[in-house]
# Entry
Amino acid sequence: MDVRAQIVMVFNLDKCIGCHTCSISCKNIWTDRKGAEYMWWNNVETKPGVGYPKHWENQERFKGGWIADGKKLSLKGLGKGPTLASMFFQPNMPKMEDYYEPFDFDYADLAGAKPGDDQPVARAFSQISGKTIEEIEGGPNWDDDLSGSQVYAAKDLNLQEKQVIDSYDSMFMQYLPRMCNHCLNPACVASCPSRALYKRGEDGVVLVDQEVCKGWRFCTSACPYKKVYFNWQSGKAEKCIFCYPRAESGQCNACAHSCVGRIRYVGVLLYDAEGVEAAALVKDDELVEAHRALILNPNDPAVREGARKNGVSERWLDAAVKSPVYTLVKEFGLALPLHPEFRTVPMAYYIPSLSPVLSTFGDTHKLLEHGMIPALETLRVPIGYLASLLSGGNHRVVGDVLKKLIAVRVHMRAQNLKQEADPVVLREAGLDQDGANRLYRLFTIAGYNERFVIPPQQREEQDPQLRKQEGGFGLLKKTRGGR
Ligand code: SF4
Ligand code: SF4
# Structure
């Protein structure tokens, strides 16, 4: 067992209101500068939709992530041949039209408009060329609230049930906030010929060393989530840094801090680095369980001892015990990885959505009144859709999560109405009263210190043992990216 610590974020999709406050906070702090105009390290997409950059989930086109070939993993779009051939040109990288041409508006057109019969308009101009843009054709959330859903949402690869798009009365919608997953098996790190990308030993944050980056852009192609960006001004790669200067002083990320829906949780997970490669190799529908098995119990004395040997501090071990992320990902198994079939072992997790309406059929509410759980097939968001997003296609895994979420709701409803709660509802979902109450608290009134348990640290004071492990464990050691 090789115990490591990782800082992780969980998103509760039920609670995201699509306000984009998170994206704006991130942009204001990190990417509000020349060359980074089109970058949204944190973006929020409307689902169903094609996302940002458009069609990023389509690995047939972008060739990101890993493929499992028998007993070994290899980068999908890279290998010796393709790597040499694409030294100076990345054929699989998204183009500007896949992101969007960044624009601003000329507000002087408004302020300086002469009195007249027409409403003055501010004209859009390109933030790259400065030229006027007559028609804006893209943006970071171009699927905004399903506008044009017949065109955009219908192209969502996760949508197997086309009738959902054809019939507005059965249409559903949710938001999907996305950022770099600070993966355990990061394709970006493994693809970098300059070894500029690395995974920090102390907290698992994946960073680009700006001094070392030569701008080859392999990382942009290799990341299946398209979360490494190329800065056209500096000629270097850039990505989310998990707000590490904030995290080092015990503060949560700007996106999480500003989140209006309070959908985000940040905490520590301990995991077994020796098992990462094996966990990325299993069949698609076994991936979620393999990922969960990697996560170790922070109360287990053997795990704690193993962590200490690897230089994990007592402060981090205590934080791992109090981690809301451990509660949601491992203890209750509610939070799932986004597209685990890309095999990067992502370390951002999502609680699937149940809202806004529990079912496409009116009788669901009657079922709820009687404290019963509705059939999963009647839920408004098709279970196949969520399984395609969050469980490598495993319907049972998503079904188990939804059953728990519904059971908590039914239980709390009974409690609030001072009715007798039926213990069978909880039991059938694998919960008890104490568990339901704890989850309810986390989902609703949990304060800052419960949602964000981030141990402060000073890199200069880190155990040298952690530095030695930086970025190069398990599978990464065998790739060009291992440092
Ligand atoms: S999501 Fe994973 S592969 Fe992509 S940039 Fe982040 S760490 Fe790298
Ligand atoms: S700030 Fe929170 S609620 Fe608003 S879009 Fe971002 S994740 Fe969703």
Notes: The radius of gyration is 23 Å.
